[in-house]
């Protein structure tokens, strides 16, 4: 099933975009919030298994994918992107949503749960938690802030496989799909990231400031069914943080991916199986 592209306006008039796979009205919609280095295309791996079972919507944040680029880079600050999520949920009628939040998408969802707790039904955190390791954060800033303008897709793919955190559970086809969701060929014939590289410093870099204490936000999720997908080699989410999350939420499901870095694509077999079972249990 092919998705359709949706367009709507944020609070400040910036054009935002999302992908939608239709589904039955009687089930909670699924909102996919990608990582800061990803776009709405991230949802393709989930939609391949769940399209038609429930409505699926995936958001392009400002400056990502098919959403508009901001005149001022300050528009990409975290609080602005989180407000975009709230705008999207209102504009696209995503009430009582199940959210799959990868990295920044998971952080945004914790904020939404604190501000509008009744808007969510269940939550999947993909390789993110209330404690963000500085080493992993620095690597994200470096990755998102560079445009290598690759001369060919094969060149982009080779670089991507060499420099991305380890993904041992992805085969060659998985890596190609991942790279195609990350880079696109533009009018100059070169392959560029599918985002505005100015996002880096504003959303996750020094300009974004120090991360707030997110443990109270995590505590606010206590009424929601919760699944954590964890890349055990992640430099952003440590084993100590996962252990504390488990202590505070012993009912939280955990799908641990050996040798996998930040952040799983959710097509890896252990992640897919855990996600499928989790979603099947949500009305």
TrEMBL record:
Residue intervals of the AB hydrolase-1 domain: 29-268
GO molecular-function terms, A-Z: hydrolase activity
Keywords associated with the record: Hydrolase
Keyword Hydrolase: yes
PANTHER family attached to this UniProt entry: HYDROLASE ALPHA/BETA FOLD FAMILY, PEROXISOMAL MEMBRANE PROTEIN LPX1
Protein name: Alpha/beta hydrolase
Provenance organism: Neoroseomonas eburnea
């Amino acid at each position: 099933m092919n998705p359709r592209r949706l367009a709507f306006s944020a609070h400040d008039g910036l054009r935002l975009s999302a992908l939608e796979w239709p589904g039955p009205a009687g089930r909670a919609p699924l909102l996919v919030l990608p990582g800061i280095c990803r776009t709405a295309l991230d949802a393709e791996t989930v939609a391949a298994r769940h399209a038609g079972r429930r409505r699926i919507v995936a958001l392009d944040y400002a400056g990502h994918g098919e959403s508009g680029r901001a005149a001022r880079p300050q528009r990409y600050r975290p609080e602005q992107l989180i407000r975009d999520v709230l705008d999207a949920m209102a504009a696209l009628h995503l009430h009582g949503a199940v959210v799959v939040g990868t990295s920044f998408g998971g952080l945004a969802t914790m904020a939404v749960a604190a501000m509008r707790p009744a808007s969510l039904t269940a939550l999947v955190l993909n390789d993110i938690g209330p404690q963000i390791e500085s080493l992993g954060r620095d690597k994200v800033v470096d990755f998102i802030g560079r445009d290598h303008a690759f001369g060919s897709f094969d060149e982009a793919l080779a670089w991507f496989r060499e420099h991305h955190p380890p993904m041992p559970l992805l085969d060659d086809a998985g890596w190609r799909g991942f790279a195609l969701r990350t880079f696109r060929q533009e009018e100059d014939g070169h392959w560029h990231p599918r985002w505005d590289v100015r996002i880096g410093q504003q959303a996750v870099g020094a300009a974004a400031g120090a991360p707030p204490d997110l443990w109270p936000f995590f505590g606010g999720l206590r009424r929601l069914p919760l699944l954590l997908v964890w890349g055990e080699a992640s430099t952003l989410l440590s084993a100590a943080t996962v252990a504390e999350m488990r202590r505070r939420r012993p009912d939280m499901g955990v799908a641990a991916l050996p040798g996998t870095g930040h952040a799983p694509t959710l097509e890896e077999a252990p992640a897919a199986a855990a996600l499928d079972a989790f979603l099947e249990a949500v009305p």
